[in-house]
Amino acid sequence: MTPRLELRNITKRYPGIVANDDISMSIMPGEIHAVLGENGAGKSTLMKIIYGAAQADSGEIWYDGKLIDSHNPASSRALGIEMVYQHFALFESVTVVENIALSVSSLFDLDTLARQITKLSNQYGMPIDPHRRVHDLSVGERQRVEIVRCLLQAPKLLILDEPTSVLTPQAVAKLFETLRQLATEGCSIVYISHKLDEVQELCDSATVLRNGKVTGTARPKETTSLELARMMVGSKLPQMRVGPPTPSEAPMLEVRDLTAPSRDQYGIGLKDISFDVRGGEIVGLAGVSGNGQAELIALLSGERTHDSAAAIRIEGKAAGHLNASERRKLGMAFVPEERLGRGAVPPHALWENAVLTANRQLVRYGMLDRNKAAGFARDIIERFKVKANGPGSSAQSLSGGNLQKFIVGREIALEPKLLLVSQPTWGVDIGAATFIRQTIVDLSRAGAAVLIISEELDELFEICDRLLVICQGQVSPPLIRMNTNREEVGLLMTRVDRGNGTNGRGERALQN
Amino acid sequence: MHFRIEQRPEPSTSMRIAAPVVATLLTLAVGSLMFAGLGYDPGTALQAFFITPVSSLNGLSELLLKASPLILIACGLAVGFRANVWNIGAEGQLIIGAIAACGVGLFYPDPESPLLLPLMFVAGASAGMAWAAIAAFLRARMNTNEILVTLMLTYIATLLLSWLVHGPWRDPAGFNYPQTALLPAAAMFEPLDYAYRVNSSVFITVFAVVLMWLFTDRSFLGYKMKVSGAAPLAARYAGFRESSAIWTGLLAGGAAAGIAGMAEVAGPLGQLSPQISPGYGFAAIIVAFIGRLNAFGIVLGGLLMSLLFLGGEAIQMNLGLSSALTRIFQGILLFFLLAVDFFIFYRLRRIPEHA
User: Fold this and answer.
1) Which of A342, A372, A414 would you mutate first to test chain B, the one with the most B CBs within 10 A?
2) How many angstroms away from the CA of A224 is the closest CA of chain B?
3) How many CA atoms lie less than 13 Å away from B124 in the CB half-sphere?
4) With an 8 Å Cβ cutoff, are A394 and B231 in contact?
5) From its phi and psi, is residue A365 left (phi > 0), alpha (psi between -120 and 50) or beta?
6) CB B200 within 8 Å of CB B189
7) Cβ(B123)–Cβ(B61) under 8 Å?
8) pLDDT tens across A363-382, in order?
9) What is the pLDDT of residues B178-214, one digit of tens each?
10) What domains appear along chain A, each with residue ranges and CATH number?
11) pTM score, two decimals?
12) How much is the ipTM here?
């Protein structure tokens, strides 16, 4: 049988690095093939080359037995190759259906298309409203749009770049069903992930990349995750140390009856949210993206202020009306979900980005202390092993994982009493993710209160002491991590969708 | 052979420096074509435009005299532009500053007082700031568009000036010309040399350039403005108030323009008339961008723009060409500058046929 896709000796260089070095692999029709590797291993570049969004410097691509000479995303789609990018390629100012219409060549009847989208998305358990504007969608919802867009094309080769990081366990199961169904219909699937258990569950074969080279191929179902991880990381895996929590007497963060209307018609309003976070413990907030997390974190961080000062208290002091800088004075620090443009200013140097939140240390008499700021940034770079040329490199020149280490490092260097973290390890490789998690655990065990908002349940179960679940703007009572499980949390993540009797179910789930 | 435009991995530093030079050269090239098309020898015309005006001490004095308000205003505007606060009404703020300063100069009870000039300075600066504050208030409170508000306020200022010089402030001994009485000597800046018009107000501009550099490059407030401009979400994340960037940006521009207006009446003009500015407030926007919103770049941009003004006058007098050429040169220069700017972030790459 001819392979659906065959890569022969693909090499791609960027200034300074070899992103892909002599890579060969082949995928049969109906095969689900994993491409495993840490961030920066060259997975995304390779996928771009297959999709035609980047051109290889040398090497050949064969598709259904034919050599592809020169191609671009449009000609790839004509061949039946579809790709869901890790960083989404959607136009933010128009609606879902208009976005999808742009990549569908045959149809331009928006009403029909909208009906198809609704049908297909419900069928695959990823409901989306085709008439919402993309800028109102959460990251998770945007991902659904991308997946549904590809499915509409009935692809022959589907490339998925870390598709599950923002889905509930139930939705992941549903997606896997969909993918298996597609595979039995003859569609080949290239599945990029760093989640070994998923790869083992779903994929027939795997190619492992490290530093742009193929370091191994495997049958994931017959290989242990330890072996796969070794191929990926190339050395011993870092181990997490999570000691028992040491909760303080008084809560560091108190949220009482926090209610806030949504700021736009598609946002989620928050209803009567109450919870505490104590010093010395890590509380996780689970939930499917788009259920009010963005609104809640903006209110907690002070990016959005609240009329009722007492709704949020930091170390007992009413803080609802304070802005982010005033809350930092009370001992808060915050790592946001978006690194570029929110947690850091992309074109600014790292030392300038240090001043962003560490300004109380780095500003004297209204003037910047440049030397001190450079020293501060250099300390973070060394202590958190950030790969950067120095305090003068711009934030946007760092890889996602390295910038995240820098931002986490900066916030921890503020010695916070309360740390808010949103999606701490999104798109960060295993080594860096473990390091970031360990740093957060250490901070907590040294007495700080930590609230983590994440859509990755594995992460929350690994390091949190208590879990909250947010759904439709409401937060569940806290669950003790030791006494709960993924299924229970997964149910709470989707409870309100099922009508009014669901609160009762949530409480029952708690009592179990 | 294909060419493709692609984004540079990092903005090019050498292009950033070369861009203004390349844009100037292209402007000269197109200018030559234009003169040739009009039937003049490009060499002579360009010489008359760019060389003759500055080949005498008087010419240099005039160059500084015109560059000074341009640089001063551009410095003030750049503070706001860096934070994406678009004050394009500096012309109006200049006029209001001139009116307030002239009012103090004319009606202060003691025309000999040594306090007169400092008072006029304060009046000019405050009036310019007050005029800009209207736009700042509306933007900060009601989210109106400051581009429109500042521009419309310019028309109001122009008409207010016109009404004053035609009506209540008209010089009774002025043969019915629409102009005020001449300011007393104590209300005028001392010329650096009585043979030439350039006066001590250029030191205000020098001071403003240094201040602007300190503010944008070293101060925390300037840093906050830069963050607000480059990444508004990061500014919110850090807890920098958006309204403070709006107020600072507009007030800085207003103060600079008001002071420039004051320096015009207390310098070369000596009185108010319906036309007190040859468009300094608008030209300063171009100067700010030619100077890359950087203090020292603005100095060079201001000198170049001033030369364009002088050259326009020179060819009008020497060759009998229309002074509209000045505007055309300004337009061409700005056009090329923005076009060349594109190549700081992008590059043209040749792609072999078979790829």
Assistant:
1) A342
2) 39
3) 26
4) no
5) left
6) yes
7) no
8) 988 999 999 999 999 999 99
9) 999 999 999 999 888 888 888 999 999 999 999 999 9
10) 5-233 (3.40.50.300), 238-331+416-512 (3.40.50.300), 339-414 (no CATH)
11) 0.75
12) 0.79
